[in-house]
Every structure is written in C-alpha cells, then in structure tokens.
Write a structure and sequence with these properties.
Blueprint: H1 23-32, E1 34-38, E2 43-45, E3 53-59, E4 62-67, E5 73-79, E6 84-85, H2 87-92, E7 99-102, E8 106-112, H3 113-122, H4 124-150, H5 153-165, E9 173-175, H6 179-186, H7 190-202, E10 206-209, E11 212-215, H8 218-224
Helix pairs in contact: 3-4, 5-6, 5-8, 6-7
Pfam families: cNMP_binding, HTH_Crp_2
Keywords: DNA-binding, Transcription, Transcription regulation
Domain Cyclic nucleotide-binding: 17-126
C-alpha cells in the first residue's frame, strides 16, 4: 500500500487541512516547513515530548501508539500520505499524548507550532479542517473502545486488516505490517493474532508472505469484523 501525493511538485496536494489555501499561501507554508526523513523503526517522538510541530506525511507509514507502564504497546492508528498528525498537541500546547514510529522509510514536512498557529489565525477555514480532524479522532477512539467490548479478537484482527487496506477496490491488497504490529493494533497477544491469521488463511481470505499480509477476500474480512457492506 504505497500512498503518494498526486502532485509531487506540491507537498500539500491532497492534504485536506490545507486544501483551501491560495497558491501563494501554500508556498509560504511549504517554505516554513522543515523536510524530515525517518528510517523504518525510527521514533519520531514519544509520549510527553513537547508538542512543537505538525507532521505532514509525504511518503511511508507511521504507527501512532501508547505504551503501558509494563512496556506493552497499543497501536492507535497507522498514518499514511497525505495525512497529517500531531495537531492535538499543537492546539493546546501540551506534551505529546502518544508516541510515533516509522514502520516504513518515510519523508515528511514538519511545521512548527508558531507557524501553524499563525496560519490558523490568518485562515479560519483551516480551523474547520482541524475540527474535522479532531472529530474523526474522537470517533475512531470511540469505535476502538466499542470494538474491545463487542468484538472477539479474530473480529478485531479482521477489522484492523480492513482499515489498513483503506479504500482499495483491488482484488488483492498487500499490507506491509508484521504480525507483532498487527497484535498491537488489534489488542491481543501475538500468538492469538497468529491463530486468527492462520484461520483466515485457511478460509482463503488472505495469505502471508514473510512480513507481509496479502488480503484476497476483503468482503469476507469486513463481514468477520462486523462492518457494514459498502
């Protein structure tokens, strides 16, 4: 699943938060942002770090997660281009509420809190986009809480795979995520998730290729995850 911006000449193309900006304003944002590259496995920030920048992801994938006092990780979401993240800390000036790790080699732009706040004051429609982003975050967290109450682990694994597949309508979708990371996202042990993956493979819904999962029957996974048909 290689997410790329449709226009490589403009780093903000496809980014909802900046969609309504005039071209000259977009160029000022790009000029103010600092290019960043992250290697696979590299931490971008950890919980309680200063929330000093908004990250605009151009290439790759980022896992956002929380860590328990015993060191267990729970992945909250996986970010792919052309998404942004880190806006919560920017708005309230508080420390990071989660950690972020590159799960693929990534390139991104980092926009400082000062530049972001100045942009919000000068362009009110950006605040609307931020509010939509926060609303989507709240809805996603609410749904995740409900999943842990109403879905068994195989159902959560199926739903996680569907989410990672995104809006693809291809007959096969390759997900670059190993089973340990999948376990962190589904909220189960690696052994239990491996059993669920094996069960899905026996049914012909997917196959594993090393550290990749190739989904071959997305509709079946949607049904197993209790998701409504599109």
């Amino acid at each position: 699943m290689d997410g790329r911006l449709p226009d490589p000449g403009d780093a903000l193309t496809g980014v909802d938060m900046f969609a309504g900006l005039e071209p000259e304003v977009r160029q000022r944002v790009i000029a103010a942002a600092v290019p960043r590259t992250y290697r696979k496995g590299q931490l971008l920030f950890v919980e309680n770090d200063p929330g000093d920048s908004l990250i605009i992801l151009k290439r790759g994938a980022i896992a956002v997660f929380r860590t328990s006092p015993t060191g267990e990780r729970a992945v909250l979401t996986v970010i792919r281009p052309p998404d942004v993240f880190g806006e919560v800390s920017l708005l309230d000036g508080s420390a990071r509420s989660a950690s972020a790790e590159a799960i693929e080699d990534c390139s991104a732009l980092a926009l400082s809190r000062g530049a972001f706040i100045e942009l919000v004051h000068a362009n009110s429609h950006i605040l609307d986009a931020v509010m939509r982003s926060l609303g989507a975050l709240i809805r996603r967290l609410t749904e995740q809480n409900a999943d842990h109450v109403f879905l068994d682990l195989p159902g959560r694994v199926a739903k996680t795979l569907v989410r990672l597949a995104g809006d693809s309508h291809a007959p096969m979708v390759t997900i670059e995520l190993n089973q340990s990371q999948l376990a962190e996202m589904a909220g189960g042990s690696r052994q239990s998730v491996n059993q669920a993956i094996g069960s899905f493979a026996n049914r012909g819904w997917l196959r594993t290729e090393g550290r990749r999962i190739v989904v071959t029957d997305l509709a079946a996974l949607r049904r197993r995850g209790g998701m409504t048909d599109r």
